[in-house]
Amino acid sequence: MPNRAVPSSSLLKTYLAVLFLLVAATAQTPDKPTASEEPGLTPSTIPQTDDATLNLHRWGAVTLFHGLPSDRVRAIVQDPRGAMWIGTDNGLVRYDGRTMQEFARASELASLRILSLAFDAKGNLWIGTESGAARVRNERLEHLPETKDQPVTGIATNAQNETLVVTAQGRLLRYREAATGTTAQSERGAATQLSAQELNPATHRLLSLTDTPNAGSNGNAVQLTTATLAPNGEFVVGSLGRGVMLHNQADGALNEQLRELALQPPRPYHINALYHDGATLWIGEQSRKAPGLWTYANNTLLHSGLIASEVTAVHGGEGDVWLGTLTQGAYLIRNGQVIEHLTFENTGGGLRSNRINTLYRDREGIVWFGTDRGVCRYDREGFRAATLSENGNSNFVRALLAATNGDTWCATNRGLFRLPAGADLGPWQPIAAIETRSVYALWEDAKHNIWVGTNSGLFVKGAAAAEFTPADDREAAKPTERENTETQDSALTPQQPTPEDKPQTRESIRAITGFRGAVYVAAFERGLRRFVESKDSSLILRDAAAQKAVCLANEEDRALWLGTTEGQLLRWDGNKVERIALPAPAVAVRALAWHGGKLWTGTAQGLFVREGEQWRELLSNVDVFGLLAVNESESREVVWVATNNAGLFKLLPRENATIRFDTEQGLASPKVFALATRGKADNTIWIGTARGLVRHRPSLAAPQLEIRRIVADKIYTPDYLTAELALPHDVRGLLVEATALGSRTFASQYQYEFHLQRLSGQDAKTIRTTTPQFAAEGLRAGPYVMTVRAFSRDLVASEPLTIRLRIQDAPFNRSTALLFALLLATAAIAFWIYRQRQRLAATNASLETTNAELRDTRLRLARETEAERARIARDLHDQTLSDLRNLLVLTDQLPQAKNDTGSLAPASMRRKIESISNEIRHICEDLSPSVLANIGFLPALEWALSDAVAQLPAAEKFAYQFACAPDLEDRLQLSEIEQIQLYRIVQEALSNVARHAQAHNVTLAAQLDETNAVVIAITDDGLGFDGTAGHATGHGLSNIHSRANLIGASVAWERLSPGCRFVVTLGARTSSSAP
Fold it and tell me: Do 970 and 1026 sit in the same domain of this protein?
């Protein structure tokens, strides 16, 4: 890789100076009006947004850097397989979450400026461009001649496979497949019959700005802007000047086919966006006098006061309606109220621009914003963190309860908080009666009474009561100030009670549950207490073991289980106590759950499950503090595990699948202590951590799975898999590559399961991996069946894909038999030679083993080094760049510096911050080249060549060319470590050319030679170099040699006249040669 000089001391000084000036200036800057003070917006309509630093993980970006043709995005749609199609000012791409694929027929489109996109009922893609529309059917592009040279601004389809196309020149066309009609032109010459009915300004008065049609003239045509479908089957059309119009079935009278939604004012006239949620038509207007939002429901048209900005896009689903605006970012409306307002400023740059051109809510609830700075992906229903109070102890969550009435209760180190039913994620209401107490346990009984266990007694609130009261008169005393100051550390070691836990007048309640119609509580250092009718209590168990109980579980009223801080597990059936031996000694048993006829047991050493008399270990070396076992569906049992040292785990016991979540996925802290849910009706998971609360709504949508290719004797595409795949007899290994599609799961979070079964024998192999590739070796002749599944982030499995293949039997005839006999004879003759050389062979084998171990060690070290570089790059990107984005936002609040003050002007400060940000981005890319994962190996080499030129001064730039075969990427079989090392070797060589060669022309070429070896050559016409002498202070040549040796490659320099040719060669690739 290039040796980029990083001025670390200068960078740090500049960063600190800018930070100091911003803090000082912000303290003197007068307060500016908040968003809620803007005209037409009240504080109740703009809710408090999340802390951007807690929730940046919910955002993602797709930009030029990731392969977008342009950052100006005009249209977004999701295809039936789950991939996203993005239309920009410079082309159309398909994005599957892992790779960006340019539309294969882009060169045949009438224009690369994409204005609208839609999929019809048969899965055909309709594309509206600035110069006409086209349809993609069976991978063929069919132009619609009626739309030639017209901007197609809206496309809508219905279940009858009819498609409405509207243009900016006032033309409205309704297409349907028919035996006769318009023939859509395909570049392959294939024709399809489309019947097109057209309304235009020359035939219909509503499409003209005058009251009469304008035959032969488009000067007064109404500009049509968008289209959507109403539930009654009518198409809804938006315009500039005529407002909203309705288009009914095409066989009606001419004047009845199109009519205005409203005839009398007030009504909207200039429409930007339309969306129908099944009950309400949402209308976005761009009027200068009264821009904003209109709704139409029950034959009533209303102007909404929720939004006072020009609405440019509307979309939604499942009760949510998202609005995009011209200058104020995006809004979420639910139940007629603004739930969330997103801007560049309050999302820490997650929303890359406040100018929203288009937006799309996909089938999994992910919202895609198309802006003038690329696409922003927003997962609102994923892990969403929030704090309850400014007090740190009040954010240390010990217990959670999702009550049946919709309220959510949160117990913390300092107080109890309530989130009312229907509230989003705040604000949380503190409970005055328990405001200063440490709360350990929460429980709701069958009568919907809420029980609260604190460090100073038990409290209860009836279903109809407004306040909590002590459950026992002895517990009415309020704790002392010292008792209120339990630290976060004390919560991690409940087995070591403080002296305040011991007074006989107050009890420290650590667990609560119901058992046989009564409420049972674990009073620390007192024992097991029973409450009947709230006030009637008695101490049931008081032996030494029961006094240390901190968790309880009800075995379907047959028995009560107790876990203690001394690692004991007790079972009490109402009469006697039985001590149950754990499968391994435990320091403490802190969590119990009975579900599905099994006892789930969380200890300080791991997670165990007891079914019958048998124990099974599920997680090891984790300190479990909370368990939640639920059925997400009728046949889907899920277990959530909260740990103190490893974050949150989700287990799917029947599938033997596990996934782990930590701060990278959105947890506020890796220390997790509490879990709660309401079950099937609302599968929301509430997660309590040491730094606040997290809400997660798992998606039950199954990912879509595709087989990309099978590599055996050649590359087999999915087209070969429609029938049994026949492989030659000499094939002994193959590679299967799959990919999963789903918007809520990032590509790196998928798990893949490959099962290979030989039908004519017992050979079977199953693996579960996060890598979408499976290599099978040592295969014998015969039929095989391979089953592939993918698991999403929420452990939802895809429909299995089945691949049938057969390895042919080897041919056998007389010639083969004679040859076999000759070989046996030769082997007999050679046997005595082998005995003589046995010692030498053993020595050689030992040497080869040692060399292989050394190479494996070097490769493992290289992988660990690359992983560490990637981690450092990720930390710089996620934290440092986020801080700098926030600094950029603060610069907008600075007053303009006067000339005589000597202060740094905001514009100058902004340029310095942007310069620092760009430098850090280059450092991140040098540490971990993301282009390899984003665009592939060969495009990454081409990008490295162009980037090397881009970094040069104008006077030193040279012409360059990249050459490779079109199908080379598919034929390459390079491991990840080989790709990285080759990429860095090429970077280093290009850096040497740029700095020392003084070349005018440079060519980078990649190919496979006749031995199937990878050959990459860089040729320049500069000063020339033969590789024998390097720069006295540089390490470039040694870096190239060491990287080449690491992967078994060779490098060579050849002096030319003029110039030099550098070649790196990696030996012949086979299915088993990749490290």
Answer: yes
User: Is the previous residue joined to 906 through a cis bond, with omega within 30 degrees of 0?
Assistant: no
Residue type for 1044, please?
Answer: A
Give 566's DSSP letter.
Answer: T
User: How confident is the model over 116-136, as pLDDT tens digits?
Assistant: 999 999 999 999 999 999 999
Q: In this structure, are 655 and 729 located in the same domain?
A: no
State CA 962 to chain mean position distance.
Answer: 33
Angle at 1028 between CA 1025 and CA 1029, to 5 degrees: 80
280 in Cβ contact with 263 (< 8 Å): no
- Could you report the per-residue pLDDT of 397-410, keeping only the tens digit for each? 999 999 999 999 99
- Whole-number pLDDT of residue 743: 87
Inter-residue contact 941 to 1006 (CB < 8 Å): yes
Rounded (10°) angle between helices 881-891 and 906-927: 170
Q: Residue 29's pLDDT is what?
A: 36
**One domain for residues 359 and 412:** no
Question: With the C-alpha atoms ordered 972, 976, 977, 979, is the resulting torsion angle positive or negative?
Answer: positive
- Predicted pLDDT of residue 372: 95
- Give per-residue burial for 304-326: e unless 16+ CB within 10 Å, then b: bebbbbbbbbbbbbeebbbbbbb
**One domain for residues 308 and 198:** yes
Mean pLDDT of the region 535-547: 85
CB atoms within 10 A of CB 170: 27
The verdict on 313 and 395 lying in the same domain is no
SS3 for 832-869 is: HHHHHCHHHHHHHHHHHHHHHHHHHHHHHHHHHHHHHH
The verdict on 328 and 360 lying in the same domain is: yes
Instruction: Tell me: do 570 and 619 sit in the same domain.
Output: yes
Does pLDDT of 503 surpass 70?
A: no
Report DSSP state, residue 500.
G
Helix (H) or strand (E) holding 937: helix 937-950
CA–CA–CA angle 480, 449, 687 (5° rounding): 75
Beta strand residue intervals within 120-234, DSSP E: 125-129, 132-137, 140-144, 152-157, 163-167, 172-186, 192-199, 223-229
- Average pLDDT for 893-898: 65
Contact by Cβ (8 Å): 387, 692:
yes
Report how far residue 525's alpha carbon sits from residue 167's, in angstroms, rounded to the nearest whole number. 78
Domain limits for position 797: 704-810
Query: What is the pLDDT, as a whole number, of residue 250?
Result: 54
User: Rg of the Cα trace of the chain?
Assistant: 34
Predicted local confidence at residue 34, as pLDDT: 31
Going across the sheet that includes 384-386, the strands are: 384-386, 692-696, 685-689, 672-676
User: Which amino acid makes up residue 934?
Assistant: N
Average pLDDT taken over every residue of the chain: 83
Return the H-helix or E-strand segment holding 1016. strand 1014-1020
Q: The CATH number of the domain where 779 resides is what?
A: 2.60.40.10
Same domain, 546 and 655: yes
Which tokens belong to 715? 């590359």
What residue type is 306 in one-letter code? Answer: L
Q: Is the pLDDT of residue 4 over 50?
A: no
Of residues 375 and 636, more confidence is placed in 375
210 falls in which pLDDT band (50, 70, 90)?
Answer: confident
Paired with 335 in beta bridges are none
- Tokens for 150, please give them: 């017209």
pLDDT attached to residue 729: 86
Between 819 and 733, residue with greater pLDDT: 733
| 452 pLDDT more than 90 | yes
Distance CA 879, CA 798 (A): 34
Q: Report the percent of the chain where pLDDT is more than 90.
A: 49
Count other Cβ atoms within 10 Å, centred on residue 266: 10
Q: How far apart are CA 983 and CA 970, in angstroms?
A: 17
Q: Which amino acid is at 554?
A: N
Query: Can you give the pLDDT at residue 1045?
Result: 84
The greatest distance separating any two alpha carbons of the chain, rounded to the nearest whole angstrom, comes to 107
User: Tell me, what CATH number does 230's domain have?
Assistant: 2.130.10.10
